[in-house]
Design a protein that fits this description.
Radius of gyration: 31 Å
Distance between the termini: 21 Å
Number of strands: 25
CATH topology of one domain: Nucleotidyltransferase, domain 5
Oligomer: single chain
CATH architecture of one domain: 2-Layer Sandwich
Length: 673
C-alpha cells in the first residue's frame, strides 16, 4: 500500500450532485517526517479543481424511479472519481454520499428506497470502502451541514492550528482562535461559531461537542453552536417577499405591483420571468421595477421575523435561539450567496478584497437605480463578466438587500465604515485574504469562495473529520483514547455522548495501551445479524421474504409426506443430534473460547476475526472496546501480553497437535470472509 490515501465525497444537493476527491498522506507515515508545527496540526488534505465534477438535476428527482439513479446519475460521477484514484488504493478509499435540502423534502419510504439503491449500486460498480450504508449514504440535517462548513473554513484559515506555534497570529491573541461560519443557499441559511467562554458556560446545553485529532495524536475539543433557518435562503425569501407585495396591494382590478427591488422599468411575472411586451403585462398580475434601493431594504426587513416570540433568549431571526455573539473575538466568513451576491457583479475586478458595507451599499445603489434597458445592454456587452446573465442582473438587487438585512439587522454584524468595530484597523477594500496567512484577518465579516485555491465546501469538513479519525491516538497509559466525531455537549463516563457521529465509519480501531482488568465500555462492532438487517442495502430487504418462503415450503413438504414418514424423519434427526453431542463431548481436542485468565478475572474477552485471503486471520477482537481488526499498528497481538489465552493455545504448549487434526484442518474449507 502507498503512502497516499484518498477519500470521495458526493454533495447531493437540490439542483445537482458534485463529486469531490481528496488526498492525504498516511498519518503513520506523515508523522515520521513532520515538523514540530505540522505535528500540532491536522494532517494536510489536498484536492484539485479537475478532481471535481457535477451532474444535474439533483438526486431527489429519482425519488419515484430509484432503479435509474445508478446508470442515469451516479455512473459518470463514480467514473470520474475512479480516474483519479490508483487502483490499488480504491479498496481503502472511503465513499460518502451526503444529501441536503432536496432529499429532506422526499417522503421517508421513497428516501429509504433511493438511498438503499445508491449504496447497492456503489458496491456493485466501485471498489470503494463502504462498510456501512447508514453512515456513508445518508441525508444530513442543516445543522450537520453547517458544522461541516465550520470545520472546512477553520481548517483552511488555520483556526485549528496550535496558537502557541503562532505567537504573531493576531486572531488568536485573545485565546479565541477559531472563525465563525455563515452559509446561505436558496432555501435555508446556517450559522456556526464557538461562543466565548462566558457564553459557552451559560448555553452549554445548546452546543455541539466536536472532537478532532492532530497529527501527533492529541485530541482537540471544541464547543460549537450551530443552527439553520429554513425559509431564509435567497429564493425562499424572495417568494415570501412577493407574497407580501400581493397582500399589500390586494384590490380588485390591480394588476401592476410596484417593486422597489427590481431595476427601474423592468416588467416581471410573479414567477420571476421577464415580460418583454407591455401589452402582455396587462393580462395578468405582474411586477414593475421602481429601482428604489433604500425602499427595497426597508421592505425586506420585516422578512427577518425579528418580532416573533423568543422563548429561549437571546434570539436573532425567526425567534430562534442563538447565544450572544462577541464580535471582538468572533470573526465570520460567509460562503455561497454571501460570496456570489457581494462579488458576482459588484466586486468582479476585486475578488480578493474585503467586504466593506459602505462601499458595497454604494455600488448596489448605483446599479439598482439604473434603467433596466441600460443594465440589459451592459450585461449583453459582458461588462460584468461572462457568468452574469440577465436573470442574475434581475435578481441581484433583492439578493443584495436581503444579504445586508440578514448580516447587519439579523445577525448584528457591525457595518464596517459606519459603525465602530472595536479595535479592528480595517480600512476598507485594501485588506486582502493574503493577510489570513500572516496574522489572521480581523474583520467581523468576510465573504470567501476559495482559500489558497481550495473551495470552502462543507464536503471538505466531512473529510477533515474522517482523516482526523485515522490518526492513531497518542499513547497514554491507563487512559482511554476518546473517539473523533461530534455529538451532544453532554459529559459521559466513556467520552461518547448520546447521538455521537463518529468521524470514521464507526467506533475507532486505534486505542492506547491499557492495563489488564480495566473495563471500558464503548459501542461494540455490529455482529453479523445486526449487519444483516441494517438499512441501506437492497439485499437485506429481500431476506425476510426469502426466509418466509422457505419456511412455508418446508411446512408444506412435511404435510405432503404423511404422518409415518414424518415420525421416521423426526427419529433420524433426534438420533443424529444425540450422536454428534456424544462425539463432541468425548473429543480430547475440544476447543472452547472460554477465557483462562493468568492474572485474575476482569480480562477482556476475545473472538477470532474474519479470514482475509491475503493476510490470513484478522487480529482477535477485544470486546472491552480496545482492539478491532487490522490497522492496530503497535497495539496488535497484545492478548497474551496481558494474560488472556484460549484453552487450546494453553494445551499446545505441552503437546503437539496430532497429524490427523492437522490434516482435517487443511482439508476443511475456509470460513467465509
Amino acid at each position: 500500500m502507498g503512502n497516499h490515501k484518498y477519500g470521495v465525497v458526493l454533495d447531493a444537493g437540490s439542483s445537482g450532485t458534485r463529486v469531490y476527491v481528496y488526498r492525504w498522506d498516511d498519518p503513520s507515515h506523515a508523522r515520521k517526517y513532520a515538523s514540530a508545527s505540522e505535528l500540532r496540526s491536522i494532517p494536510e488534505i489536498r484536492t484539485k479543481r479537475k478532481w471535481t465534477k457535477k451532474v444535474k438535476p439533483g438526486v431527489s428527482t429519482f425519488h419515484d424511479k430509484p432503479d435509474a439513479v445508478g446508470n442515469d446519475h451516479l455512473a459518470p460521477l463514480f467514473e470520474h472519481a475512479l480516474q483519479h484514484i490508483p487502483k490499488k488504493e480504491r479498496p481503502s478509499t472511503p465513499l460518502f454520499l451526503l444529501a441536503t435540502a432536496g432529499m429532506r423534502l422526499v417522503k421517508e419510504n421513497e428516501r429509504k428506497r433511493l438511498l438503499g439503491e445508491i449504496c447497492s449500486y456503489a458496491r456493485r460498480h466501485t471498489e470503494f470502502l463502504l462498510p456501512d450504508c447508514a453512515t456513508h449514504i445518508q441525508v444530513i440535517p442543516g445543522e450537520t451541514e453547517g458544522l461541516y462548513g465550520w470545520i472546512a473554513a477553520n481548517y483552511l484559515l488555520g483556526g485549528f492550528d496550535d496558537p502557541k506555534a503562532h505567537e504573531t497570529h493576531e486572531h488568536a491573541k485573545k485565546g479565541h482562535h477559531t472563525y465563525g461560519f455563515l452559509d446561505m443557499g436558496g432555501a435555508s441559511a446556517q450559522i456556526a461559531f464557538a461562543p466565548n467562554a462566558t457564553e459557552s458556560a451559560k448555553h452549554a446545553d445548546d452546543l455541539k461537542l466536536l472532537r478532532l485529532r492532530r497529527l501527533d495524536g492529541q485530541n482537540m475539543d471544541y464547543r460549537v453552536f450551530v443552527t439553520t433557518w429554513l425559509g431564509f435562503g435567497v429564493n425562499e425569501a424572495r417568494r415570501r417577499y412577493v407574497e407580501r407585495l400581493k397582500e399589500a396591494s390586494a384590490a380588485d382590478g390591480v394588476l401592476e405591483l410596484p417593486d422597489p427591488c427590481l431595476p427601474k422599468g423592468l416588467l416581471r411575472s410573479l414567477d420571476g420571468k421577464e415580460i418583454e411586451d407591455p401589452k402582455e403585462a396587462k393580462k395578468s398580475v405582474h411586477l414593475l421595477g421602481t429601482g428604489k434601493f433604500a425602499e427595497c431594504e426597508r421592505t425586506t426587513y420585516p422578512l427577518l421575523d425579528k418580532d416573533k416570540p423568543c422563548t429561549n433568549a437571546p434570539c436573532l431571526l425567526n425567534g430562534q435561539h442563538v447565544p450572544a455573539i462577541d464580535f471582538d473575538v468572533n470573526h465570520f466568513v460567509g460562503v455561497s450567496e454571501y460570496w456570489h451576491t457581494t462579488h458576482e457583479i459588484f466586486e468582479d475586478k476585486h475578488s480578493t478584497k474585503a467586504y466593506d458595507f459602505a462601499t458595497y451599499q454604494k455600488r448596489v445603489k448605483e446599479f439598482c437605480e439604473q434603467d433596466w434597458n441600460s443594465i440589459e445592454k451592459d450585461v449583453n456587452a459582458q461588462k460584468y463578466g461572462k457568468s452574469v446573465d440577465e436573470d442574475a442582473a434581475m435578481d441581484v438587487c433583492f439578493k443584495a438587500s436581503w444579504i445586508i438585512n440578514v448580516l447587519h439587522d439579523g445577525i448584528g454584524i457591525p457595518r464596517v465604515g459606519i459603525e465602530p468595530t472595536g479595535k479592528s484597523s480595517h480600512n476598507g477594500t485594501e485588506e486582502v485574504i493574503e493577510a489570513v496567512k500572516e496574522k489572521g484577518f480581523m474583520d467581523t465579516f468576510r465573504p470567501v469562495d476559495k482559500i489558497e485555491d481550495v473551495e470552502v465546501s462543507w464536503t471538505l469538513g466531512r473529510m477533515v473529520l474522517y482523516v482526523a479519525s485515522q490518526v492513531p491516538p497518542a499513547e497514554t497509559k491507563g487512559v482511554l483514547a476518546l473517539p473523533v466525531g461530534f455529538g451532544n455537549n453532554v459529559a459521559t463516563a466513556n467520552g461518547v455522548p448520546p447521538g455521537f457521529m463518529y468521524g470514521g465509519s464507526g467506533p475507532p480501531v486505534h486505542q492506547p495501551t491499557l492495563p489488564a482488568g480495566n473495563n471500558y465500555s464503548t459501542p461494540a462492532d455490529p455482529h453479523w445479524h445486526d449487519a444483516l438487517w441494517r438499512e441501506g442495502d437492497t439485499a437485506p430487504r429481500r431476506i425476510p421474504g426469502l426466509l418466509l418462503f422457505l419456511l412455508i415450503a418446508g411446512l408444506a413438504g412435511l404435510l405432503l409426506i404423511g404422518r409415518e414418514r414424518r415420525r421416521k424423519l423426526l427419529n433420524i434427526c433426534t438420533s443424529s443430534v444425540k450422536g454428534k453431542r456424544r462425539r463432541i463431548l468425548g473429543s480430547a481436542g475440544t476447543i472452547t473460547y472460554e477465557r483462562v485468565a493468568q492474572t485474575g478475572d476482569g480480562s477482556p474477552t476475545f473472538e477470532l476475526g474474519s479470514f482475509d485471503e491475503e493476510e490470513g486471520w484478522r487480529v482477535p477482537k477485544m470486546h472491552g472496546g480496545l482492539y478491532d481488526g487490522p490497522g492496530l499498528g503497535p497495539y496488535a497481538g497484545l492478548g497474551s501480553a496481558y494474560g488472556v489465552e484460549t484453552r487450546d493455545r494453553l494445551a499446545t504448549r505441552s503437546r503437539e497437535v496430532s497429524p490427523s487434526r492437522s490434516t482435517a484442518r487443511a482439508r476443511s474449507p475456509l470460513p467465509p470472509r
